[in-house]
Amino acid sequence: MHTISTAEENYLKAIFTISEKEGKAAATNAIATVLNTTAASVTDMLKRLAEKDLIAYEKYRGVLLTPAGERLATFLIRKHRLWEVFLVEKLGFSWDEVHDLAEQLEHIHGDALVERLDEFLGHPRFDPHGDPIPDAEGRWTYRSQVLLGALDAGKRGVITGVEDHSPAFLQYLDHLGLVLGAGITVLERFPYDQSMRVSADDGTERILSEKVSQNLYVKPTI
Amino acid sequence: MHTISTAEENYLKAIFTISEKEGKAAATNAIATVLNTTAASVTDMLKRLAEKDLIAYEKYRGVLLTPAGERLATFLIRKHRLWEVFLVEKLGFSWDEVHDLAEQLEHIHGDALVERLDEFLGHPRFDPHGDPIPDAEGRWTYRSQVLLGALDAGKRGVITGVEDHSPAFLQYLDHLGLVLGAGITVLERFPYDQSMRVSADDGTERILSEKVSQNLYVKPTI
DNA sequence: AAATATTTTTAGGTGAACCAAAATATTTTT
DNA sequence: AAAAATATTTTGGTTCACCTAAAAATATTT
């Protein structure tokens, strides 16, 4: 029947993410890298997923999700992000601690559970990292956000998300006092190393490296 | 390393439950029955668990948990019951709906998660079925409860738990208005079929079958 | 276009967790 | 204490999800 293993679910999510980002079929090697496994194992699994009609697979041509596969992947992301909200909002975890737990929780099966959790959390539309949470029908909320690095001097934005989800980056942002929803104004840009001087809404000023500004999303406000 | 699979965890829990109830080593067949598998599969797994020093296994003699195995089993039950409280208290599930979900959730790994969940729930000591929740150190709360069927006419008790955890029984109790914490007085016992006439604290009277009174625990109050 | 490099697949294994059927132990009955 | 019944283990499979090494296909360089 339509039973699906944790391993299969992880492949679907990886294929979704890769093909989304690259805008084309996900390559065997790319999947292997994301899942920390070998190309041979990936080929193995791709055959099984194709058999189940969850992916469109052509040898040597990479893979795309079928509508059924995409539905499952979207729902996994929905679950992952709802659990992240739960862990942060209800259990008091910080945004750099929740990924591994959500990675486990996303594999819990039960439609009623997800919908009741969503309800309990107040139907959040974004997770603690600012990533959108698909709704019960799999619809995504889009948002106009740009990398902070794309803002010219004098422009202001509100922090909406991160590109890099690593604990190291998230902790560094905490240290810098940069949290989702905070306003940030670019005061000056230094072409030499692409760093920038910014101010928070309380007037505090900081220098941010290119690496930080290239991994932080803002919604421009002016 | 000390990594443990979901299958192994389920065996530990089964062995714990059986040897607890029987007061002796759990037999291969008993484990197979509980886990809905075959004796051959059980023997297979027992070897692996013995190898990991989680059980004391002697061929043809049944198994007991080692202290390490018992610690793991206790912690699994802790997780299962805490998640049940969460599902009922926070997500609004009824007590007959939560078993399968908790069965999945108990396998989520993360000490911090369990302790924060426990905190979030207010350190509950009993789950929605009245079963005790071991504390973070694995200690159990004991309670003096007897089967309703053991109460003589004229005696009163407070409903504290169930022996039968089946949805059918739980739903029937809901139907009868018998919930945990409710007071119940035995008015009359009918030796013919071991049924009894009881009254709730609001005076409502009912006839309960032997089957009901043998599956419902009460704490005697008079 | 040939040579080289890279990517992907195939071939042949592994261990975990299951199974049915056969063999062996243990327990119960006679 | 045999015989019969029951319980358990062993034997020889299976599938899933992984692996390494070799082969084949594709892409890139010369």
List the helices and strands and how they pair.
2 copies of one chain form a homodimer.
Chain A: H1 6-22, H2 28-35, H3 39-51, E1 55-57, E2 63-65, H4 67-90, H5 99-105, H6 111-120, E3 146-147, E4 156-162, H7 167-176, E5 183-190, E6 195-200, E7 205-208, H8 210-213, E8 216-220
Antiparallel strand pairs in A: 1-2, 3-8, 4-5, 4-8, 5-6, 6-7
Helix pairs in contact in A: 1-2, 1-4, 2-3, 4-5
Chain A binds a DNA duplex (30 and 30 nucleotides) through helix 3.
Description:
- Two copies of one chain form a homodimer.
- Chain A is of the alpha+beta class.
- The first copy, chain A, contains eight helices and eight strands, in the order H-H-H-E-E-H-H-H-E-E-H-E-E-E-H-E.
- The first copy, chain A, has helices at 6-22, 28-35, 39-51, 67-90, 99-105, 111-120, 167-176, 210-213; strands at residues 55-57, 63-65, 146-147, 156-162, 183-190, 195-200, 205-208, 216-220.
- In chain A, strands 3-8-4-5-6-7 form a six-stranded antiparallel beta sheet. Chain A has a two-stranded antiparallel ribbon with strand order 1-2.
- In chain A, strand 5 (183-190) and strand 6 (195-200) form a beta hairpin.
- In chain A, helix 2 crosses helix 3.
- Chain A is globular, with a radius of gyration of 19 Å.
- The N and C termini of chain A lie far apart (53 Å).
- In chain A, 31% of the residues are buried.
- The model of chain A has no long low-confidence stretch (mean pLDDT 97).
- The A-B interface holds A 87, 90-93, 97, 100-101, 104-105, 108-110, 112-113, 116-117, 119-120 and B 87, 90-93, 97, 100-101, 104-105, 108-110, 112-113, 116-117, 119-120.
- The structure holds a DNA duplex (30 and 30 nucleotides).
